[in-house]
Hints:
This protein is mainly α. Helices cover about 75% and strands about 0% of the residues. The longest helix is centred in the C-terminal third of the chain and has 22 residues, at about 185-205. The radius of gyration is 22 Å and the shape is elongated.
Amino acid sequence: YNYACFLRAYGKYLPENDFVAFDHVLLELAEEGYPQAQYDYAQYQIYANHDIDTGMEWLLKSAKNGFLAAEYRLGDVLLNSPSVYLKQDINKAKRWLKVAALRGHIKAQQKYTSILLSEEKVSEAELKQSLDWLEESISEDQDTADTYYLLAKAHHLSGNQSTAIDFITTAIEKAEVLKWDIAIWQNFKDELQNASSTNKTAQVK
């Protein structure tokens, strides 16, 4: 595998007689069942050669062999297809992202949670698991504007409206620094604040 990586990086500098195509070396390793090579070969086929069928075949093999990066990537490409020749499959994407998420893959946890929170019904157990993942991301300094947005949505579904407002406020502040379009997030914050004001008025009456 290290030889394949060397060839990919420096093969063009080798004398013509010594040249060996790195993808041939990767393929040999992949066929021998080496998950890292299967994953790398899949990535190369999908993103460099635009050969979706071959790439997905090897990506699936790597994921089934328990390679964490492949489990996440498989869910990711099924969610956000890199090609018109590959249809989005939310159910399969969710399944593979959950596999990676349960093994501690932070991006998988966030993408799985994002899908979960967009659904009409979320169980208490799933909601608690999502909150645990998101809060752990913050504690490990893996927090992003998206993390705080998802935390706001999760707390909103949990009924913790004031906490949801705090998190969406932080999400918007972080997104503004990055010059993101925050119109949807701002609308969500306005809805939360309006609902909170209505509840307080009702309580006073």
